[in-house]
User: Fold these one by one.
Assistant:
Number 1:
Amino acid sequence: MPQRVHIARELAEVFKLIAHPDRIRLIEELRTGECDVNTLAEKLNLPPTRLSQHLSLLRTARMVEERRLGRQHLYRLAQPQIAGWITDGLAFVEARAPAALAGELREVRELWS
């Protein structure tokens, strides 16, 4: 039984870390491969400083890895499977969402697939 408690706490920490809309979008954007901060900021329509803060948190938790190429910093998911968790979570959102969001959910599913 104590192992289950420990594992449950570890999973709760992962869920807390990804429980921010910007980080969810960031993880989904990185699912296709590595990218630099400015490109990510442009794609996600976020200020680079804010994005850097999110990347720092994800890097500290070893969910994101950084590679330097000259002066450029490239980021990628350490375990790309985490993006699959998010895509799988769309089914839960769809089950709870009002019918008016069906079009938006369809667009997101296509974008993230």
Number 2:
Amino acid sequence: MNNKQHTTTAGEDYLESVLILQKKLGMVRSVDVARYMEVSKPSVCYAVGTLREGGFLTTDENHYIHLTDLGRDVAEKIYERHCFLTKHLISIGVDPETAEADACRIEHDISAETYERLKELVTKE
């Protein structure tokens, strides 16, 4: 994750979680992320350190987590895909819980081209 333009699937999940929690809570700490993602606090601390080194987020003196512009861009892209995919999987009859889980997996692997074509297809209908 040291490449400033790329992060892993797990890193994307952490960034997306920070974005969602910032929208809900305003300020986010590692413990909030751990609860939200249902992972251990040491796992969050390791991920935060790696993402900080990669330029995706910062922490302040009170240990609050802040997305950098780069981190926010990645998080918003993943979150947009997640919401779009979940909504449309549900609309074709997929159980909401399954749709949520499938969207979480697909959002990381779908190419930008395929995602854009899906969005175009949906807006034409």
Number 3:
Amino acid sequence: MTCDGPDCGDALQNLYLFIDREIDDASCEEVQSHLDSCSDCLTEYDLEQVVRSLVSRSCQEAAPEPLRQKVLQSIRAVQVEIDGARVTRTTVTETRIIE
């Protein structure tokens, strides 16, 4: 890719967020405006859309139930660890305030 204009770095940095609609409306408008005026960035956007489309069509198979359960169990274990760390930090902070 030969895109190196002053706004290209920002547009490309926000490209994935733009595609997933995970940025605010003003930023979306900025990226869209840039894509409308920059053929190199538009080419990058189009390429990313094609890749996402291919991956989406290739990933229609559901994970086997034992694997799903194992992943969910791992996620829950991490959530418990995180929640436990929050409680410990809160308790320590409250103790310091009371002292």
